[in-house]
Design a protein that fits this description.
Layout lengths: L7 H37 L4 H34 L3 H12 L10 H18 L2 H23 L3 H38 L25
Helix pairs in contact: 1-2, 1-3, 2-3, 3-4, 4-6, 5-6
Length: 216
């Protein structure tokens, strides 16, 4: 059963909602960058708390703004190439990450492209080289945290312990991402009409997400 095309008025309403949502997210990210940078600078306590806080806040704000601009420019080019708006493309990425991509024909090329990139990113993060690098960083941040605690540099110890916990929790995040990618691939495979040229990933310790086609 094929899905009916969305009415033009409904489509425009959805695009407007997605555009506003994207603007709000970007604005919140920029608004939070300043206070977070200021708090970090105050904790570092280098050359005076207030001056350091202001300098770090400005640096973090500019870095986030530049990175956000670069990412949006890149995503805009990808969205234009696939025939969707920027707001729609970003929302499709969010749905794929959740393992629940839409299956409508008009967004299927974009969904497949996003899924392919997220799959490649997962494979890179789970490679042997990345595993060794992650182990080395965990050991490094553990030593830094211990040294900072012994030196009573508790602010620096807080930052290093936060980095340590982030690296320790990464394998759990990767396992969760694997399950969501499998769910997304399974949903797309269940609704496709013809065979896809894209390969089905065989995740370590898991079966392929593509279900077998029932025999007539």
């Amino acid at each position: 059963m094929t899905s009916q095309p969305m009415p033009e008025a409904r489509r425009k309403e959805q695009e407007a909602v997605l555009r506003r949502r994207l603007v709000v997210r970007c604005a919140l990210l920029l608004v939070l960058a300043g206070p977070v940078g200021f708090a970090a600078g105050m904790l570092m306590n280098i050359n005076g708390r207030l001056i350091t806080g202001i300098w770090v806040a400005a640096t973090v704000f500019i870095a986030v703004a530049v990175a956000l601009w670069a990412v949006l420019r890149r995503e805009q080019r990808r969205a234009a190439r696939l025939g969707v708006t920027l707001g729609r493309y970003v929302d499709l990425g969010r749905l794929v990450r959740r393992g629940d991509p839409p299956v409508q024909a008009e967004v299927r090329p974009a969904v497949l492209e996003i899924l392919e990139r997220q799959r490649a990113s997962w494979e890179q993060m789970t490679s042997k080289g990345q595993s060794w690098l992650r182990t080395g960083l965990i050991a490094l941040f553990f030593l830094i945290t211990v040294v900072n605690v012994l030196d009573r540099q508790y602010a620096l110890a807080f930052f290093s312990s936060f980095a340590l916990l982030s690296w320790l929790s990464l394998p759990l995040s990767l396992r969760r991402q694997r399950k969501r990618l499998q769910a997304a691939e399974g949903k797309l495979a269940a609704t496709r009409n013809t065979g896809s040229s894209r390969r089905a990933v065989q995740y370590p310790g898991a079966a392929a997400a593509t279900p077998s086609r029932p025999q007539a």
